[in-house]
Give the backbone structure.
Amino acid sequence: MTQKPDNLPTHDVAGRFAAPIDQTAHEPAHWEKEADAIRLLLADKTRHIFTTDESRRVQEALDAETYWKLPYYERWIHGFSSLLKEKGVLQEADLLTEEARLGAAGEDKVEDAPGGHHHHHHDHDHDHDHDDHPYQEDDDAGVAVLSPLQLRGRAVRNLLIARGILSAEEIRAQIEAMDSRGEHLGARVVVRAWTDPDFAARLAADAGAAVEELGLSRGETVLTALFNTPDVHNLVVCTLCSCYPRSVLGRPPAWYKSRAYRARAVRDPRGVLAEFGTQLPEGTSIRVHDSNAELRFLVVPRRPSGTEGWDAAKLEQLVTRDAMIGVTEARRP
């Protein structure tokens, strides 16, 4: 494992960590979706209580051991709960009181752990003991108590709702909206670009405006389309966090947020592609694009040969999420 010099930021792992990329699929648990929804709502254009960069600042102030030990969405809870206190929206005493009330009422339990399997996702790629997970077993078989940060997230939710800053319906709607987004939306964009040269030109010039032509959201950041060619293959990463074109692809996969992917994509992109089963000709150059708080990227993979005359529905089956991130190419017929 590549060691990080002490004078470099904990979170910035670009090129400074070596490990295989764990591609295991992770279905977010309800508490993770809720934390994600609360973060998005608090930072939206309506409330604008904090920015992505501010949330990042709080998380990045954690020491290295804590930062990488915490599951991804627990870091987000730490971020938004700290900023709510910093900005005077909530007080620590009120949070402690609500946490105590939840515990006394027995509401400090996991909501969705079917079969006793508790969802959790760490971003450290097996570099410490995974028995140290965010749940603590209760006396009742199959019941688990929320971790301290998960409990804090629930307390924050309750206080924000009680004070009219958020509503339960807004949180539910945000979760449902994100659940409805996925690769099928991005595939529509890609196939339209494959089959309509004028649309492809508009997508290249202003991707946000172009996706709105299809009834899709451009999101609250700048969306840029990257077109693969026989000579150039594009790969997207976010070395500092997990910035991702959610409006057209939904939530990022767990591996996209992992330390191994974030570090290796910029240092060894060809090796990363090989782990995803993608072998490019030696003459093909790879361009790595680093997302940030203001900019998102969508890769338009090359249209496979042998698909002439195919209708849009059939073509969309060839366009995967991974191809639109750039770790694979479009499926071949």
Summary: The first strand starts at residue 136 and ends at 137.
